[in-house]
Q: What sequence folds into this?
């Protein structure tokens, strides 16, 4: 507990980590307050193809980022779209870790046939290009939030398993593990109480990076037409829907791209800051 509190305090000493955390907190607040700060309903039709800073017809408001082909306010759709991204990306990453961590613990600590079977299964899945694997899964089971969670979990868990396995192989020979084995503690307790907490640093850093990868994945799936079904705002879907008009009306695709990039940048910077903290801790 004291080491965790110390790590939280040290993040303030990492300028990169603070910037990343600030970006993430900004988007979290945007998502939580979407109904309050969004100037218009995200699916309401107004003036088609309005450029940024165009006032409404009655002069009571303004389309700060313009509107799309159907006259929907882009800023409002980006704001409401942040909810889906910030709900799906961390949840999908958490599900992948919930599957990958037990597999990695078992493979690294038990070794033998358990390691052989789990490593073989993970190598089979990792042999597929990950984007192709996502496309195959979503195209097979259909596009929905639940299916995106399942696809990310299935495709990401083997990579997490290999990371955890490598950490466990290093930690299983430590003195505190040997002492626990000498006391006759069961294997599951040794893995969860003795080994896993001492592997938390690299796993937390990897989790931040992985959330960023999942955000990109959700955006790519939306761009390919395999993301969240309409009319729900989807950043990747917004880019895909009007990509053919991006040269004439760049605001319809540029701003969703900037939203994705900024959120991914926030998680990557936070991961860099946490890595700095772990080296100082």
A:
């Amino acid at each position: 507990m004291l080491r965790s509190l110390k790590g939280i305090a040290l993040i303030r000493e990492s300028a990169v980590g603070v910037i990343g955390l600030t970006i993430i907190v900004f988007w979290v607040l945007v998502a939580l307050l979407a109904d309050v700060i969004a100037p218009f309903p995200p699916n309401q039709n107004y003036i088609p193809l309005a450029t940024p800073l165009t006032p409404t017809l009655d002069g009571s408001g303004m389309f700060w980022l313009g509107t799309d082909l159907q006259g929907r306010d882009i800023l409002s759709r980006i704001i409401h779209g942040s909810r889906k991204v910030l709900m799906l990306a961390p949840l999908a990453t958490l599900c992948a870790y919930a599957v990958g961590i037990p597999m990695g613990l078992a493979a690294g600590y038990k070794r033998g046939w358990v390691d052989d079977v789990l490593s073989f299964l993970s190598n089979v899945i990792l042999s597929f290009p990950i984007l192709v694997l996502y496309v195959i899964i979503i195209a097979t089971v259909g596009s929905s939030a639940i299916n995106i969670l399942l696809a990310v979990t299935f495709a990401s868990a083997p990579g997490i398993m290999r990371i955890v396995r490598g950490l466990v192989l290093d930690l299983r020979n430590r003195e505190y593990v040997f002492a626990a084995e000498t006391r006759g503690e069961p294997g599951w307790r040794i893995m969860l109480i003795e080994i896993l907490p001492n592997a938390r640093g690299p796993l937390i850093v990897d989790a931040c990076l992985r959330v960023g990868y999942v955000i990109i994945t959700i955006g790519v799936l939306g761009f390919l037409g395999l993301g969240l079904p309409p009319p729900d705002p989807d950043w990747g879907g917004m880019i895909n829907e009007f990509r053919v008009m991006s040269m004439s009306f760049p605001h319809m695709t540029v701003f969703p791209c900037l939203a994705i990039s900024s959120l991914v940048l926030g998680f990557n910077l936070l991961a860099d800051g946490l890595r700095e903290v772990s080296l100082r801790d």
Notes: The CA atoms of residues 48 and 251 lie 13 Å apart. The beta strands are 54-55, 62-63. Residues 74-110 form the longest helix (37 residues). The first strand starts at residue 54 and ends at 55.
